[in-house]
Specification:
Number of strands: 2
Shape: globular
Structural class: mainly alpha
Strand content: 5-15%
Strand order of the largest sheet: 1-2
Number of helices: 7
CATH superfamily: dinb family like domain
CATH topology: Four Helix Bundle (Hemerythrin (Met), subunit A)
Number of domains: 1
Radius of gyration: 16 Å
CATH architecture: Up-down Bundle
């Protein structure tokens, strides 16, 4: 049986980003109830050399929209990295989900062997579609979403595995 590149990407990203948005709702409720400065969370890092929570959400969204756009052969939407609040981050997630929901299985399926070239500075990395999705994009996406989860748990937000996994 051949893997559906669409089913392995868009619904998975949409599901986890939706769960992340719900987790941010719980974070906002916590901030409101405790009368905390929301920047306490959005600027928080687990370790000084790690990126803050805001950047973790931005990268998760960028990874999701970037891989599906590349597989579908469409332009990657560009978002300014100007989010400051939990509400701003939820809006970025919603925008990312909305973009991904415009894509169809016909655009993404059968891209297992599609040549994907990622440029970072003057370096190029070459992937095949499935290798890029399964070996790079999905692990990177889950890393950043998990880091957001860990930042929030570390700061006392009452969330658990069910919040992270939702109903896949």
């Amino acid at each position: 049986m051949t893997i559906s590149m669409f089913q392995a990407s868009v619904p998975r990203f949409v599901n986890i980003l939706g769960n992340l948005s719900n987790i941010l709702d719980k974070a906002q409720s916590h901030v409101d109830a405790k009368k905390l400065d929301p920047a306490t969370l959005t600027a928080y890092r687990l370790f000084p050399d790690m990126l803050p929570m805001t950047k973790q959400v931005q990268i998760a969204c960028d990874t999701a929209k970037g891989v599906v756009a590349r597989l579908a052969g469409v332009e990657i939407p560009v978002y300014e990295d100007n989010e400051k609040t939990l509400v701003d981050l939820k809006a970025r997630i919603a925008k990312t989900i909305a973009f991904m929901q415009t894509l169809t299985p016909a655009q993404i399926d059968s891209t297992e062997d599609k040549e994907i070239v990622i440029k970072r500075g003057d370096k190029e990395t070459h992937y095949k579609g499935m290798q890029f999705l399964l070996g790079h994009a999905l692990p990177n996406f889950y890393f950043h979403v998990t880091t957001v989860y860990n930042i929030l748990r570390h700061n006392g937000i009452e969330i658990g595995k069910r919040d992270y996994l939702g109903n896949p």
